[in-house]
Every structure is written in structure tokens, then in C-alpha cells.
């Protein structure tokens, strides 16, 4: 675009924008509110998306390519407006036009709600996969739930987490399109009768409760291309909206009750991360979006394929993201047999060949097990089908594989009057994968060992990835521009090209610019901190950051206890000097997870103690930022020096926060767990700091015993001191932390916090030394950016295509 074209484009945009603001507000441009400014910008952008969206669908219909549907109970998409503007390559025009109109671009963008339709990594992964698929121009779409209320908003009051309902739809959401004429009915409860009709066993479903599933579509725009895919989110509504005058009082109340019972299904996102909470409403949610999604996909497929389903599994892949959508197996069987009249054998072949499954955790408390009675009552036909799948599968184990009864029992789908959803997903899918090399190994050798022995060909591994558009290009513009100016822009679509950056590893002028960008990002975060917390932090200190859901296995407690110990050191040795450190935390605890909430309270108690003690001369500051979400992450990741990835080895399936930090030049301080292992391999031993027990050591202690936390305590005076501080009134108003004390000593420290403490403290000291050599630190940081190519979700999608979905 030359100068006069640019000028022209800016003027055109200004006029369109003024007009749109007046249209949406009914006010003169100068009178319109900030929200009107945002609404108008969103609408202009949605119009641009809309025409590309229509064209993309048409192209997909004309050139049939295998389609993938990602079924997930969570999609944590983050804000969309800036991402759309950048992907359309009009940021310069829009930003300049808005500023020439005397408005502030960033302030307008900040009016957008951040849809919290996920808890953490699992939901965010799906959002990254959708973005990468659209950027690669692939016909992959999402299928999930249109939650009226997403994950709660977290406030910190007196150091404690307080939950506030998230009402993200309060002012409407400009990026979704409701499609009422594509609604379908989902059936719950009722009775099944069967009869032989013309010699064929036929099932009749009666007295069920119908719920209307209405889709809302959100465009997923590819970066710098014309592809727009869809994220389809289903909303529950009563089937018949009632007609007021015709109701007598009793009917009216019934109708109101029916309406709110129907709507309850998609009212709230369950706020648990990595924890099964067997509520009936949750089971309804799972079946609701599975059934609605599959019904629509099969209907559409038939329309374009002469009503013939023979080739379905060659043209469609249904991907089950963790076990929440595992009812895809029996629901697909139901549709193919009861609605489409296929035989069991044909339906089973199509089902297994269409479904693929990704496992996301090996934590036992996360494994979904639904009581048979609950499933039978809510979904009687689905239960019958599960029973039959189980019966046929166990027969096969007995006859074809010659397994004995105890081996068979371990692989059953129905165990102890419960449906084991992971087993159901494995049996119904032709591919099962873990999300990092170690996690996939644990699946093969432990979790799904028996399945691996009979179906080795089903097992795959794909290491997670994150989209560099959201987590580097659009959120770390300083670094983006420096990279563009140094090695060109190819890296934006091929992240492996970042390796070329290594030629600047000894370049002093590059280093100066690079360090300046990190400092600018840290100042930006310091400003945010100042606005939200009563503490001023030094941008020249080491920003050591742990942001993720609060969970015992992620060990925020290890980090917190180390800070307390470091503080004790400084108090005991007034002459001691360290590089100033700012320890930053953020993350939500599940509302019912008492221990995680105590960890938040402890971090805030330590912050209160440390931040207000002048005697340590500002050498350490501690910050807990409230309400971690994607938007806050976009400010935090680019500002980090240290990425805390300190889970108990073997517990974190992959992690994706680790990848976002790495891309932005933070150095990982981590255990050999999840994708940390692959980060270590990619950057080399000298560009990461690892510590702690290995996953084998953890597993061996868990299996054979041999760890006594009390012995560590007895032999370590420093640990004795911090443990004492938890219960001796050190924290004043914050009182005591007895449950933390007890879990570490009385209950033998299940997550090996005390066991790994020394090793972690040594790693921290090592970092303190490394940071004092600026050249070396720069090379370490740059290596992390340069070798982050493997952790792009573009690479992950290519792996899925090649090895799992067979779309390549
Ligand atoms: C990336 C991300 C996560 C996952 O972080 P981990 O460190 O991998 O647990 C969680 N929440 C949000 C908002 C994220 O962006």
C-alpha cells in the first residue's frame, strides 16, 4: 500500500466509523459513549468477517476436504477484536484513523468482555487449535456450550479469593450469530420400548423431556488469509415458548419452571480444573452439546452426500477433547441405528472410524465415572447402547484376545456400577493420544496399559502448542517488530524460522534493543500492578512469574515457601545482597477447593509481610494479581524473566503456559514434567533451569513408599523455621495456616513439596547468579525465543493431521 492509498484507506475508515457509531448509538459521533465506540468497531469488523465467512463455507462445500469437528466442553477464546483486526491486516489503518478522530484505540479494545468459557489449559488449547487451523486454511470447527455465565470473576478481599458471577453477555456479544433455524431437539429421561418390526428390532423412545438446542456461531479468522471457520456453541431453551393469555395460574408456573429448568443446562460453566464433580447437571451438559452437535453434523453430511453415510468416516472426524464429550460414541451409535436405520455392525464401524480421543490428565480425581443409575435415568437409550458396547467388547477380550477375568474387569467400561468415561472413549475411538511425550508414555505404561497391549496401533502422542499470533505477535509487539526487522516475517507462519535469531546471539546492538523491549514490557506490567495492587515494583528486578490455576500438583506452595525462606535469609543476614526479585502470582482456585484457597491466602500473607518490611530494602516484592484470564495473560507472559513450571513430576500432562513464556523469552525454572522435558530438549541444558524428583522417582515413592516428609523436616532447620511460621502468628491478621502445615507434615506431603525444597532453592540461587551476567542471560533468553518453533499450535495441528485425523 503506497502513501496515498494509505491516506485514502484511513479517510474511508474514518467516515465509515463515524457513520457506524451514529447508527449503533443514535447519537452524534461526539456524544457517543465509549461502549458505542467499541460496538461500532466490532460491527464493522464483523461485517468484514461475515463476507469471508460465507465464502469459506462455499469453498468447503465445493471442494470436499475431510472435516474435523473439535468437541470440547470448554473453549477459552479470549478477546477477539484485536485478533480480528490484526488478522485482516488493517491494524495500522484502524489505529491511525481512530487516533486521528481523537479516540483511544486501546481504551476502546478494553471494553470487550473476555469470554471465560473455559477453566484453563484444556479450553485454551482448543482456542489455539481453532486459530491455527483457520490460519492453515483447514476446515476444522469447534463444537461446545454457550454458557450464559463463564468462569467466575475472582476478587481478592483481605487476601482471600471471592467469587463474583461472570456475566459476559450482559451488554450483548457482537461476535456471535444466533442460528435459530439450525436448532435441534435433545431428549432426556423417558422410557424405551422395543418391538420386532418386519423382523428388525426397533426402539421407541417415549415420555422423554425435549430440550431445544440453539446454536450460536463465532467466526474463527485465519491470520493474514481469507479463511473463516466456526466455533459453534449450543444454548439450551424450552421447546415451546409459552403463550401468556392461554395459561391459567398453575400452568403458568409450570411453564416458567420448565423454561428455567431447560435454560439451567447452559447457565454455568463448572469451575473445576482437573477435578471430576459428578453432578447430574454436568452430565446433562455433556450429553446436550454432544447430541446437538452430532445431529447437526450428520444431517448436514447427508444433505451433501446423497443421504448416504457409507463414506462418513472418510470425510468427517469427530475429535473428543478429554472425556467430557465421550458420549459421542454411544450417541453416534444411537443416531446411526435408531434414526438412520443402520445395523449395529455398520454403525459401529462408522463410529469407531470417525472418533479420535485426546486424554488430558492422569490425576485420579479428574477421571470421570458416572453412576449407572444416574445415566440410566437421564439417558435410558444411551445407557442401553453403552451396555451393549461393553458386552461386545468384553466378549472380544475373552474370545479373540484370551484375557482372563481380572484382566477383562480392568478394561471394562462399566465397573462397580459406574461408567468409566476414559475407557468408553478409548473403546469407541480409533486413536488415543496424550499431550506431551512423557504423558503419552504414562498413558501407554500405566493408565491405559491393558488397552495398549491389545490396541497398540491406536496410541499416539502429540505435544501441545500455542498460537504465536495471540501469544507473541499481537501481545508482544515490540519483540514482533524487532524480529521482523531482523529476519523478515516468514516466522509468523513458520515458527521454526525463529532459529535464525541465533545469529544475533553475540550482537551487542541487537541485545540492547532486545533487553529494552523486555524492560518496556515489564514497565507495562508494573503499571498494571500499581493500578490493581498496593505495591510498587521495580522493573529492573527479576520478574519471576507463576500464573495458572491454583492446584496442589502445580505447587504454588513450593514457590511461596521458598519466598518465605528467602525473606528469612535476608532478615538473618542484613548485609546479604541479591538481585531484586518480584515474585508474581495469578490464578483462580475452584470455589470448593479449600486447600487451594488457603494457598492464595498464604501468598497474600507473605506478600503483606515482605512488601511492608523496609529492613529488606525492597530486594523482594510479592504480588498476587486477581482474576487471571487470557487478557491478563497477554500482559503477563511478555514481561517475564522466569517461568515457574514446578509441578510434581508426572502430574502435569503438558502445560501450555510454559510455551507462552518461552516464546516471549522467559527462562523456564521447572521440573522434568510435561512439555518442560521437550522445552529442555529444544533449548539445551544451558538455557533452562531444572530441579527436583523425576517422574519415575515420584511414581516409585507413591508405589513403594520410602518418603517421610517428617524426616526432611527433622533434618532441615530452614524448613523447620518456615513450617513454624505457618502456625506461630508470624502473619498477624492472616492468622494461621494449620491445614497447610498438616498436609505437609501430618499427611506426608503428597506432592513432595518438602522433598523438592532444597533442590528448588538451589535452582533459584543459580538463577540469581546467572542474571548477573547480562550477556549470558540474553543468550539464554534469546535461545528460548529462537527454539520455540516446536511449540506453535501450527505444528501441533500438522501432527494431528498427519498421525491422527489423516487429513494430510
Ligand atoms: C495458557 C493458559 C492456561 C494454562 O496454563 P498452564 O501454566 O499450562 O497451566 C491457563 N489459563 C489461561 C488463561 C491461559 O491463557
UniProtKB/TrEMBL annotation:
Record-given protein name: Alpha-1,4 glucan phosphorylase
Tree of life domain: Bacteria
Enzyme Commission number(s) of this protein: 2.4.1.1
GO molecular function: 1,4-alpha-oligoglucan phosphorylase activity
Enzyme class at the top of the EC tree: transferase
Keywords: Carbohydrate metabolism, Glycosyltransferase, Pyridoxal phosphate, Transferase
Lineage, highest ranks first: Bacteria, Bacillati, Bacillota, Clostridia, Eubacteriales
Function as written in the Swiss-Prot or TrEMBL entry: Allosteric enzyme that catalyzes the rate-limiting step in glycogen catabolism, the phosphorolytic cleavage of glycogen to produce glucose-1-phosphate, and plays a central role in maintaining cellular and organismal glucose homeostasis.
Cofactor requirements of the protein: pyridoxal 5'-phosphate
Catalysed transformations (reactions): [(1->4)-alpha-D-glucosyl](n) + phosphate = [(1->4)-alpha-D-glucosyl](n-1) + alpha-D-glucose 1-phosphate
Similarity comment: Belongs to the glycogen phosphorylase family.
Amino acid at each position: 500500500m503506497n502513501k496515498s492509498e494509505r491516506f485514502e484507506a484511513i479517510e474511508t475508515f474514518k467516515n465509515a466509523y463515524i457513520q457506524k457509531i451514529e447508527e449503533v448509538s443514535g447519537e452524534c459521533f461526539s456524544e457517543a459513549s465509549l461502549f458505542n465506540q467499541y460496538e461500532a468497531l466490532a460491527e464493522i469488523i464483523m461485517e468484514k468477517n461475515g463476507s469471508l465467512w460465507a465464502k469459506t463455507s462455499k469453498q468447503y462445500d465445493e471442494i470436499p476436504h475431510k472435516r474435523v469437528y473439535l468437541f470440547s466442553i470448554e473453549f477459552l477464546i479470549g478477546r477477539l477484536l484485536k485478533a480480528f483486526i490484526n488478522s485482516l491486516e488493517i491494524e495500522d489503518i484502524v489505529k491511525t484513523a481512530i487516533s486521528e478522530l481523537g479516540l483511544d484505540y486501546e481504551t476502546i479494545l478494553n471494553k470487550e468482555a473476555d469470554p471465560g468459557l473455559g477453566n484453563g489449559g484444556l479450553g485454551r488449547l482448543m482456542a489455539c487449535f481453532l486459530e491455527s487451523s483457520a490460519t492453515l486454511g483447514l476446515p476444522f470447527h469447534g463444537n461446545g456450550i454457550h454458557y450464559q455465565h463463564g468462569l467466575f470473576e475472582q476478587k481478592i478481599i483481605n487476601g482471600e479469593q471471592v467469587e463474583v458471577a461472570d456475566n459476559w453477555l450482559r451488554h450483548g456479544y457482537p461476535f456471535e450469530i444466533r442460528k435459530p433455524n439450525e436448532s435441534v431437539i435433545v431428549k432426556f429421561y423417558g422410557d424405551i420400548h422395543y418391538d420386532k418390526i418386519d423382523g428388525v428390532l426397533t426402539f421407541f423412545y417415549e415420555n422423554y423431556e425435549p430440550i431445544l438446542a440453539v446454536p450460536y456461531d463465532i467466526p474463527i479468522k485465519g491470520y493474514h488469509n481469507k479463511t473463516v471457520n466456526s466455533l459453534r456453541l449450543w444454548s439450551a431453551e424450552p421447546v415451546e415458548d409459552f403463550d401468556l393469555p392461554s395459561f391459567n395460574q398453575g400452568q403458568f408456573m409450570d411453564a416458567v419452571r420448565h423454561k428455567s429448568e431447560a435454560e439451567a443446562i447452559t447457565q454455568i460453566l463448572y469451575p473445576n480444573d482437573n477435578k471430576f464433580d459428578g453432578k447430574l447437571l454436568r452430565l446433562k451438559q455433556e450429553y446436550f452439546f454432544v447430541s446437538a452437535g452430532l445431529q447437526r453434523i450428520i444431517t448436514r453430511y447427508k444433505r451433501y452426500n446423497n443421504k448416504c453415510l457409507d463414506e462418513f468416516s472418510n470425510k468427517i472426524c469427530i475429535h473428543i477433547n478429554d472425556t467430557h464429550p465421550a458420549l459421542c460414541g454411544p450417541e453416534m451409535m444411537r443416531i446411526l441405528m435408531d434414526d438412520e436405520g443402520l445395523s449395529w455392525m455398520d454403525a459401529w464401524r462408522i463410529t469407531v472410524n470417525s472418533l479420535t480421543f485426546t486424554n488430558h490428565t492422569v490425576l485420579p480425581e479428574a477421571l470421570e465415572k458416572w453412576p449407572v443409575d444416574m445415566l440410566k435415568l437421564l439417558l435410558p437409550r444411551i445407557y442401553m447402547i453403552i451396555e451393549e458396547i461393553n458386552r461386545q467388547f468384553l466378549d472380544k477380550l475373552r474370545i479373540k484376545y484370551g484375557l482372563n477375568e481380572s484382566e477383562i474387569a480392568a478394561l471394562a467400561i462399566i465397573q462397580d456400577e459406574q461408567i468409566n468415561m476414559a475407557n468408553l472413549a478409548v473403546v469407541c475411538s480409533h486413536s488415543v493420544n496424550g499431550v506431551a511425550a512423557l504423558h503419552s508414555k504414562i498413558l501407554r505404561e500405566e493408565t491405559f496399559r491393558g488397552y495398549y497391549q491389545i490396541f497398540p496401533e491406536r496410541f499416539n502422542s502429540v505435544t501441545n502448542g500455542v498460537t504465536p499470533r495471540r501469544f507473541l505477535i499481537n501481545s508482544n509487539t515490540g519483540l514482533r517488530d524487532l524480529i521482523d526487522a531482523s529476519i523478515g516475517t516468514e516466522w509468523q507462519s513458520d515458527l521454526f524460522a525463529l532459529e535464525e535469531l541465533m545469529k544475533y546471539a553475540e550482537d551487542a546492538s541487537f541485545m540492547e534493543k532486545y533487553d529494552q523491549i523486555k524492560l518496556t514490557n515489564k514497565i507495562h506490567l508494573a503499571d498494571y500492578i500499581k493500578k490493581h495492587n498496593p505495591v510498587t515494583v521495580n522493573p529492573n528486578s527479576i520478574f519471576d512469574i507463576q500464573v495458572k490455576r491454583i492446584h496442589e500438583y502445580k505447587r504454588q506452595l513450593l514457590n511461596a515457601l521458598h519466598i518465605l525462606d528467602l525473606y528469612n535469609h535476608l532478615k538473618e543476614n542484613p548485609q546479604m545482597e541479591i538481585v531484586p526479585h518480584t515474585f508474581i502470582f495469578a490464578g483462580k482456585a475452584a470455589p470448593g477447593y479449600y486447600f487451594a484457597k488457603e494457598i492464595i491466602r498464604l501468598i497474600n500473607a507473605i506478600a503483606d509481610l515482605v512488601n511492608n518490611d523496609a529492613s529488606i530494602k525492597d530486594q523482594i516484592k510479592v504480588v498476587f494479581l486477581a482474576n487471571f484470564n487470557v487478557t491478563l495473560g497477554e500482559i503477563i507472559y511478555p514481561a517475564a524473566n522466569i517461568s515457574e513450571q514446578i509441578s510434581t513430576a508426572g502430574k502435569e500432562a503438558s502445560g501450555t503456559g510454559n510455551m507462552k513464556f518461552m516464546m516471549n523469552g522467559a527462562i523456564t525454572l521447572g521440573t522434568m514434567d510435561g512439555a518442560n522435558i521437550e522445552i529442555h530438549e529444544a533449548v539445551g541444558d544451558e538455557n533452562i533451569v531444572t530441579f527436583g524428583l523425576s517422574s519415575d522417582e515420584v511414581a516409585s515413592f507413591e508405589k513403594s513408599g520410602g518418603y517421610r516428609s517428617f524426616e526432611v523436616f527433622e533434618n532441615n532447620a530452614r524448613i523447620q523455621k518456615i513450617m513454624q511460621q505457618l502456625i506461630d502468628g508470624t502473619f498477624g491478621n492472616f492468622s494461621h495456616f494449620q491445614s497447610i502445615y498438616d498436609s505437609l507434615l501430618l499427611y506426608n506431603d503428597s506432592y513432595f513439596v518438602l522433598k523438592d525444597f532444597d533442590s528448588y532453592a538451589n535452582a533459584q540461587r543459580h538463577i540469581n547468579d546467572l542474571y548477573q551476567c547480562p550477556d549470558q542471560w540474553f543468550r539464554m533468553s534469546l535461545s528460548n525465543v529462537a527454539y520455540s518453533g516446536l511449540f506453535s499450535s501450527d505444528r501441533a495441528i500438522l501432527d494431528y493431521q498427519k498421525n491422527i485425523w489423516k487429513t494430510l
